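Teaching assistant here, posting this on the class forum so everyone can see the example we discussed in section. The complex has two components, and the goal was to see what a joint structure prediction looks like when all of them are supplied at once.
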Amino acid sequence: MVKFDGNQPIYLQIVQKIIRQIVSGELKPGDKLRSVREMAVEYGVNPNTVQRVNGELERMGIIEARRGQGMFVTENLALLKQLREQLIDGQISRFIEEMREAGFEDAEIIDGVRRHLEKAN
Amino acid sequence: MGTMNKPIVQLQQVSKKYQRTEALKDVSLDVPRGKIVGIVGPNGSGKTTALKLMAGLLQPDRGKILLDGQPVQGRLISRKVAYLHETDEVYGFFKIREAVDYFHKIYDDFDLHRARAMMEFLELDSEKRVSQLSKGNMMRVKLVLTVARNAPLVLLDEPLSGLDPMVRESIIKGLISFLDMERQTVVLTTHEIDEVEPLLDAVVAIKNGTIYRFEETEVIRSEYGMSLVDWMKRVYTGKEHD
């Protein structure tokens, strides 16, 4: 079963998981999401929690309900692009904050990132 | 609106004594409909007593219990409540298939189709005799017999206790897969809080026969910034205001 972090609401953790699946392309624009029941079983959570997840994603415009058919990933590509940018901004600003707190200069951070990326390729 | 918003079960200033020990003291609780609620607390804190009172299996010494807005009394209550006992209550000489048929016969709301689907999901061999089952399979059978009923209130007494992690996972998934959350409410007692947390909408923490807290699990996480297990530790050591 899926393990959740202790200090954050479970529904938010699932929302983030689905957003990551969309950004990574595992879920594509127009893809159908699994039913509430299927997702509840997969994550080992209460179906009410999954309803809340869907409500949150729908409110953000990331998924859309089609009557009688279930929930689908939006085909609004501009919104998905924005989501992608938000995710990268969030991750990078967190990283920079931590590095600065740890006493690194910006030049060192940039150097370090470049070296890592070169090694990874 | 109307009945949907009314609590499925209400305890109103309920007290219950066994000889001289007070199991519950002046307890009031409204259980909302369509939720999965966990009653948690150490052994002897009054968890099972609260559950049995809701089921009408025990009568309160003081106070009132309302089920679906009606006083809990008489045998009619068994039509509205499906109860999973912690102890084994299924006749050992039955094969699983026979136990299912028997429950189908005695309960009007027993859904045979659901029972069969559950047996398949839980990988139960319906020709096995109940007396020959492992502890885990015994609990799976009890889950089938309880959850296959379309009772509006499903009460589960320690459904995970003493089972290994694999069985606990299958019990939890079986419950999620087959409950009808539109029509059913679940109240369960447990001390396996860690595993059951993602399943629970709300938690009733009982301590020394009184309700210490009644809180939504997601509120505990977002407002207290901690998991249910950590929150419980605080509640029971009295250090929650640190």
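For the discussion questions: The first helix of chain B runs from residue 47 to 55. The two ends of chain B are 41 Å apart (CA to CA). Think about how each of these relates to the inputs above.
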